[in-house]
Write a structure and sequence with these properties.
The complex is a heterodimer.
Chain A lengths: L6 H7 L2 E8 L24 H18 L4 H12 L4 H4 L3 H21 L4 E4 L8 E7 L7
Antiparallel strand pairs in A: 1-3, 2-3
Helix pairs in contact in A: 2-5
Chain B lengths: L1 H34 L3 H22 L10 H4 L9 E6 L2 E8 L4 E2 L5 E3 L4 E3 L4 E3 L4 E3 L4 H28 L7 H33 L3 H6 L13 H10 L31 E5 L6 E5 L3 H12 L10 H14 L5 H13 L8 H6 L27 H15 L7 H19 L2 H13 L6 H9 L11 H9 L3 H5 L3 H14 L11 H16 L17 H6 L12 H34 L37 H14 L1 H5 L11 H9 L1 H9 L17 H4 L7 H9 L32 E5 L5 E5 L1
Antiparallel strand pairs in B: 1-2, 2-3, 4-5, 6-7, 8-9, 10-11
Helix pairs in contact in B: 1-2, 1-4, 1-5, 2-4, 4-5, 8-9, 8-10, 8-16, 10-12, 10-13, 10-14, 12-13, 12-21, 13-14, 13-16, 13-19, 14-15, 14-16, 14-18, 14-25, 15-18, 15-24, 15-25, 18-21, 19-21, 22-24, 22-27, 24-25
Classes of the chains: A alpha+beta, B mainly alpha.
Chain lengths: 143, 767
């Protein structure tokens, strides 16, 4: 039981108990924000504060990605001037932040969620609609 | 529509204009260069390049297509999902429609393009000439294309005019003729292109999409997506390029997941529940509370049984199920529920509640969690002492039941809570009532009894969803667990308590007040033996007699906090007092009975009355809406109407329904559905608040119009009924969709099917 497996292997060996979907929070418009409400399925799996912190960090990063700041202005102007050929060589601000988010999620998974039998899925894979949390069966508690 | 025609025309002209441009260049540029300035061809060239680039981006760029939802994501939603989900955006209700093709609820502003067969984010329109949808990602390029094309056409026309005017005498010459022809073409297509450009300039300024404009979504209403004129223009032109969602499946990083897993430390975890709405604070020390709460929720969630359902059986089943489940801490859960009931303003615990509660003042957003939602109770000002009292009271009662399923505890709470609350005429009172009702939930009839009390404006119903309190309601004490037969009695007791309008409710939170308040109740409870068999002495909250009798309590006191112990002590004292006043209770009982119209004599609260199922507590999650097909929008309405009509009596029972302004049936309904009801009432202005499971019953729906600022809201509220909410996380339908209630409400949908639901009730499902 103490073996280490890759996720794929674990998927075959560690049963998935449930999947929790954290939906988007549209209260402030179509900005990409996720609800910080703690789902009840995770109650006995992870601390509420930890979870909320993760979601808030994600929300902050998405807000940063969508921010209409100087970087987005410059990018837009540059793209216009170069007839958008700049997109072929440079990645946009949003894409940069998305990479940062992916890294953050990976790190959270490794440090916090995987040890608790949970797995966060990057919302970009779902079209930024939901954050999927996979709950793995905890065999140690199986009777 | 005119602008659509313009759109098509413009697209068609694009290619022609490009050809024209080339011709113009060939024919005029050399002359123009010499005559006017060398900047002319340069300018033309740049503009042409710009037109071409934007055209290409608009044509080839992904507009923001959403990938199809995975199977596991829509598992809960698919079959029983209501057609619409409401979400509140900046205070305005917006409707999200279920996309049958893509298997998710379309985010706001998203629409499904039938040509591309995809849902597109911020869908504007499908442009046939670029053979692409215009959505969030490429709208800017499309808009710039239109602008640059207009500028280009203007330029072509003007320069052509200059050329022709200069060569008036040689109109027959080839160059001049070509120029003239080009000018005519440019002039001809100028009208549709300019028309379309002007149209989109207006759209950008107003912050709308073509789709929204043509469907008239915000006609006469407020656009929640607008950021002001400047903000909108800035958003269109300067926002960062949105990401692509249709990504290639990339290799996922390997994450090692191996059991055993770390579990959060639950032993000494304290759950702080802040009860909003009257500021009753309470800190419940719950060990393993969460799990128990969940368990409770699970158990509590049940299909909404019609009022005539056999409550006892229900209770029994609940008990069985609860026992079967591995709930760890029932007492905490019960306490939790008590508090949650008090917090009218907090987020509804049940997902369903979220969905159907249009906008609570305190609710920041509507949560469509597919997961069960926890009860979040915002903090208010009530002195914590009161809560402590409540807690203690609660704990006291629940102590014996620590090892027992939650329901044992729940009833205790209920009783307490309701009474004091009422006395205070607090909104919390109403909530308490609901809690109380929840308490008596196993016997549904009881809940309604409490309803009148609970009227307070507490909008918070979720907590009291019958689901949560089902077991608890049934029996406060351990005895109830042991003697299921008592539960009906308890129920009746609850009802009896309801009869005591003001006195009957003893909120565990009110320490001193409760003393005397409870007495009458207690007396009543004392009477139980003398009363009809229905009433069991184990009344919620007043259980003390029972508790006292049970000495060898399985309760473990080692994990009780100081407050709990104190409350236990206090309870004991109260019981002493009660015993002394038992004889006085009888007279009061009559009073109570009269007070609550609901009771016929106080005990026989018809099950109909309290059909609390409404929000099945946390369990009822929106995602698993009742299995009705199609849009269930009207279900709630239906339920509400019927419900309201069914229990007019509750109204008089002094229901001070908080805001049930527009909805008298609503208030009634809320009364009935204990927990939920209080919430729905308070949410009056908010709009239709519906307990998930019992959407049909919840009055919220039909009444929503008031709170929504636009007509849409009303629709949304109405549609909110999707009562997926009633569905539990587990997908069990606690509140069966069928439990919608048989009444027919003015459904907006054309087709209404009658379905026989649980308990033989006929429900109407709008198709």
């Amino acid at each position: 039981m103490a073996e280490t497996h890759s996720l794929q292997d674990m998927r075959q060996q560690t049963a998935i108990t449930a999947k929790v979907f954290i939906q988007r929070d549209y209260s402030s418009g179509t900005m990409c924000q996720f609800q910080t409400k703690f789902p009840s399925e995770l109650e006995n799996r992870i601390d509420k504060q930890q979870f909320e912190e993760t979601v808030r960090a994600l929300n902050n990063m998405y807000a940063e990605a969508e921010k209409l700041g100087s970087q987005s202005y410059i990018e837009g102007c540059l793209a216009c001037l170069t007839a958008y050929t700049v997109f072929l060589c440079m990645e946009t601000h949003y894409e940069k932040v998305l990479k940062k988010i992916a890294k953050y999620i990976q790190e959270q998974n490794d440090k916090i969620y995987a040890p608790r039998g949970l797995l966060l899925t990057d919302p970009i894979e779902r079209g930024l609609r939901v954050v999927e949390i996979t709950i793995f069966e905890d065999r140690s508690l199986t009777r | 529509m005119l602008f659509k025609c313009l759109l098509r025309c413009a697209a068609q002209q694009t290619e022609r204009i490009l050809i024209v441009f080339v011709l113009m260049c060939v024919s005029r540029c050399p002359w123009l260069t010499k005559v006017i300035s060398p900047a002319v061809p340069l300018y033309n060239g740049l503009v042409f390049l710009f037109v071409l680039a934007n055209f290409s981006m608009a044509t080839f760029m992904d507009p923001g297509v959403y990938p199809r939802a995975d199977e596991d994501e829509d598992k809960e939603d698919d079959f029983r999902a209501p057609l619409y989900k409401n979400v509140e955006i900046k205070g305005i209700q917006v409707r999200m429609k279920w996309c049958a093709t893509c298997h998710f609820y379309r985010p706001p502003r998203c629409s499904h393009c039938s040509v591309c067969d995809n849902c597109v984010e911020d869908f504007d329109h499908h442009c046939p000439w670029v053979n692409n949808c215009i959505g969030r990602r490429n709208y800017r390029y499309f808009f710039l294309f239109l602008l640059s094309l207009s500028a280009h056409m203007v330029g072509v026309f003007c320069f052509g005019l200059i050329f022709v005017l200069d060569h008036r005498e040689t109109l027959g010459a080839l160059h001049t003729t070509v120029t003239l022809v080009v000018m005519c073409i440019a002039g001809l297509f100028f009208i549709p292109v300019m028309g379309l450009t002007g149209f989109h300039m207006v759209l950008v300024a107003r912050g709308r999409t073509t789709n929204e404009q043509v469907t008239g979504k915000f006609r006469g209403g407020v656009n929640p997506f607008t950021k002001g004129c400047c903000g909108n223009v800035e958003y269109v032109l300067c926002s960062p390029l949105a990401p692509r969602y249709m990504l290639d499946p990339r290799k996922k990083p390997h994450v090692k997941i191996q059991p055993p897993f770390i579990r959060p430390d639950l032993s000494d975890r304290q759950i702080t529940i802040k009860v909003s709405d009257n500021g009753i604070h309470s800190t419940i020390i719950s060990s393993k509370s969460k799990s128990s709460l969940d368990g409770l929720d699970d158990k509590e969630t049940q299909p909404p049984l019609p009022p005539k359902a056999d409550r006892y059986n229900q209770l029994k089943s609940q008990m069985t199920s609860s026992e079967g489940k591995n709930h760890r801490n029932t007492s905490t859960t019960a306490a939790w529920w008590c508090f949650s009931s008090l917090s009218g303003k907090t987020h509804p615990s049940t997902p369903a509640m979220y969905k159907f509660r249009p906008s609570f003042g305190t609710m920041p957003k509507v949560h469509y969690h597919t997961t069960e939602e926890k009860i979040v109770i915002s903090d208010d000002r009530k002195p914590s002492a009161i809560l402590e009292e409540g807690v203690r009271g609660h704990d006291y009662r629940s102590e014996p039941n620590l090892d027992l399923p939650e329901y044992a505890n729940a009833p205790l709470h209920r009783t307490f809570q309701s009474s004091p609350l009422q006395l205070d005429s607090d909104p919390i009172n109403s909530r308490t009532l609901s809690l109380k009702q929840g308490h008596g939930r196993p016997e549904k009839g009881q809940l309604p009894a409490l309803e009148p009390r609970t009227v307070t404006s507490t909008p918070y119903k979720s907590v009291f969803s019958p689901n949560n309190l089902s077991n608890r309601n049934g029996s406060l004490s351990y005895d109830s667990l042991l003697n299921p037969s008592i539960s009906p009695a308890t129920a009746s007791e609850c009802m009896a308590h309801r009869g005591v309008p003001s006195v009957g409710f003893h909120s565990p939170y009110l320490s001193t007040k409760m003393c005397h308040i409870r007495e009458p109740d207690m007396q009543r409870q004392q009477v139980p033996p003398t009363y009809s068999p229905v009433i069991s002495p184990r009344v919620v909250g007043r259980q003390s007699p029972h508790l006292r009798d049970r000495d060898p309590s399985p309760v473990r006191y080692d994990n009780l906090s100081q407050t709990i112990m104190a409350s236990i002590q206090e309870r004991k004292e109260k019981e002493e007092r009660e015993k002394r006043q038992m004889h006085h209770g009888r007279s009061q009982t009559h009073i109570y009975a009269q007070d609550s119209g609901v009771f016929d004599g106080g005990y026989g609260l018809p099950a109909n009355a309290c059909y609390p199922d409404g929000p099945r507590g946390p369990g009822s999650r929106g995602p698993t809406p009742p299995a009705y097909g199609g849009s269930r929008d009207n279900l709630m309405g239906v339920g509400l109407m019927s419900y309201g009509q069914r229990t007019p009596v509750l109204r008089h029972a002094g229901s001070t329904l908080g805001r049930a302004p527009r909805t008298s049936p609503t208030s009634l309904h809320t009364d009935q559905s204990s927990i939920n009801s209080s919430q729905s009432r308070t949410t009056g202005p908010e709009g239709p608040y519906r307990s998930p499971a019992h959407q049909p019953h919840s009055p919220a729906m039909p009444r929503s119009p008031s709170y929504s600022r636009q007509k849409l809201s009303y629709i949304s509220a109405h549609e909110r009924i999707d009562s997926p909410q009633a569905m539990k996380v587990n997908g069990q339908m606690d509140c069966h969709p069928s439990a919608q209630g048989a009444a027919l409400s003015p459904s907006r949908h054309s087709n209404v099917k009658k379905v026989t639901g649980v308990g033989g009730t006929t429900y109407e499902i709008s198709v």
